[in-house]
Amino acid sequence: MGTEMSAAEARRSAQREALLDAASEMLVHGGPDAISLRKLAARVGASTMAVYTAFGGKEGLITALFEEAYNRLAAAEEAVPKDRQPLRRLHDLALAYRSFALKNPSYYALMISSTLPVPDALRHGDTADGNPAARNVTGHRSYRIMFDAVTACIEEGSLPANVGADVLADALWAAVHGLCSLELAGFHASAEAAEKRFNVTTGAILRGLLTPEGRKKLDRLNRDE
Questions:
Q1: Measured between alpha carbons, how far is 50 from 4 in angstroms, rounded to an integer?
Q2: What's the CA gap between 17 and 12, in Å, rounded?
Q3: C-beta of residue 197 within 8 angstroms of C-beta of residue 178
Q4: Phi, psi at residue 187, to the nearest 5°?
Q5: Is 145 within 8 Å of 93 (Cβ atoms)?
Q6: CA of 77: how far to CAs of 3, 63, 149, 152, 163, in Å?
Q7: 3-state class of 133 per DSSP?
Q8: Domains defined along the chain, listed by start
Q9: Are 94 and 203 in contact (CB under 8 A)?
Q10: Cα–Cα dist 25/45, whole Å
């Protein structure tokens, strides 16, 4: 009986993932109005009731889409070995971020939509309606994984302790996020050009933030490759 329950749970999980994948494409290409629960269900061979059961309706589905995007990013980051040198881990997390973006363009597009401009009145400070969506990014584990890697680099002396881990993490996240956004938008003439610019830019930004001891460690790591 336990095996049957596991199989049923696996089917529900697979169906939920299929629904989210299809809905992410519908949302990116047509906005919220493009999402029809009936059409979505038909697209993956499910019933409309299955959509309601999984998400509670359209609003719940859209919320789940954003959660899924950041959860998938976190899973990609968690696959980076934790026993790496702190600087190597930070570098590998940037590569994992880009790999996630390229493999999940519709989900990444949702993440980009959460960092679009907001009215002046909502940009800074607290509001009655809560924080802008972009500010909530720092509370997700995908951001905390990168923040913890930055903290480890500070503790070993590779990054300066007097700047603030949040400032350094924000700078690195913004750089990687912007580079991936441009690549997915077709800014570069080729995949090779995109990869070269990603490596050059992230490498230059990281080196510019490092302490003298951090630059020595980075040079040693590069020589050992």
A1: 19
A2: 9
A3: no
A4: -65, -35
A5: yes
A6: 31, 22, 11, 16, 24
A7: helix
A8: 7-56 (1.10.10), 65-224 (1.10.357.10)
A9: no
A10: 16
Ramachandran angles phi, psi of 132, nearest 5°: -60, 155
Amino acid identity for residue 104 in this structure: N
Could you tell me the two tokens for 185?
């938008």
Locus of tokens 């690549």: 183
Cβ 100 vs Cβ 72: under 8 Å:
yes
Report pTM.
Answer: 0.86
Phi, psi of 160 (to 5 degrees): -65, 140
- Digitized pLDDT (tens) for each residue of the chain, 225 residues in all: 444 557 878 888 899 999 999 999 888 888 778 888 999 999 999 899 989 999 998 889 988 999 999 999 999 999 999 888 999 999 999 999 999 999 999 999 888 888 878 778 777 876 556 678 888 889 999 999 999 999 999 999 999 999 999 999 999 999 999 999 999 999 999 999 999 999 999 999 999 999 999 999 999 998 887
